[in-house]
Hints:
Strand order of the largest sheet: 8-6-10-9-12-13
Number of strands: 13
CATH class of the largest domain: Alpha Beta
CATH superfamily of the largest domain: P-loop containing nucleotide triphosphate hydrolases
Mean pLDDT: 87
Amino acid sequence: MIVWLNGTFGAGKTTAARILVDLLPGSTLYDPELVGDALRVMLPRKRLEDVSDYQDLPSWRRLVVEVGAALYAETGGVLVAPMTLFRQDYRDEIFGGFASRRIPVRHVLLHADETILRRRIELREEIPGDAEASASVRRWCLDHLAPYRSALSWLTGDAYVLDTGSLTPDETAERVAEAVRRGDAGPCDIVQTPEPTAQTVAAGVLFFDEEDRVLLVDPTYKPGWEFPGGVVETGEPPTRTAVREVAEELGVRLDRPLRLLVVDWEPPRPPGHGGLRLLFDGGRLDADTAGRLLLPGDELRGWRFVSEREAAQLLPPTRLHRLSWALRARERGRPLHLEAGVPVG
């Protein structure tokens, strides 16, 4: 498993992690910050200037998963990863990547009151001979207290929270080790969808409300919103997949035939393999039915009806183009065949 120690600067993640690897037999320290350091060396300066934090680089988030998975396979033991992670979509992307590789994650939040955090930051050890750099690091740490406060609303519901305000680093590591051994240290129940090894076929369903807004769902295991649906299993007809998935994801039992709106061939774009994507018209959901939607907590965290304009703020470009053509097909009353999001013929 991976024990992910989260928390803001001054929470004691790195120190506790070093002690924790001695308390968990066969464990290894995995510092995702080193992935960021490597990218700073390898990426062009212009690309680095586009972001204020290396976590905003898709390559960092992807490599954190790939490097972690490689270390996990190499060592065969627990990885202890001390890393601040305040954006829930980045957490989804990284933890979902581990889940797809069947690597369980234990999410632990090392917390302390802001007064204590500020005092710890002010007392940080100076960088020898560089007072300016020391002051810059302290400012950086203090600047991240506000984002930490904002993130607490989801962090406290997602992670095993350990208040380190009155604990020494040794006591903190011991408490985390005890929680890991008991099995209650923030198990992350993200759905574990296997990584595809070839092109796949996926079936999605579009539901509409009385205002013709379309239903989108918010997956826990990857960034961006999605359509209800899933990957077609071997030997399963796509329409059956669509019916099964919406029953599992939303608790909606479809008793009417599904009408095809779009067939879209998605080209392989590493690390994805692409494949066929089908969208069906699931019809209207009245307010009463929508109010009874049931979401699996390990797979979906929310849903909403949105206009096409609102969907542009939630969907990745590929899915947005697919939705736009599906809406046009619904208006015209005939399905559309797309390749890479562009109508054929």
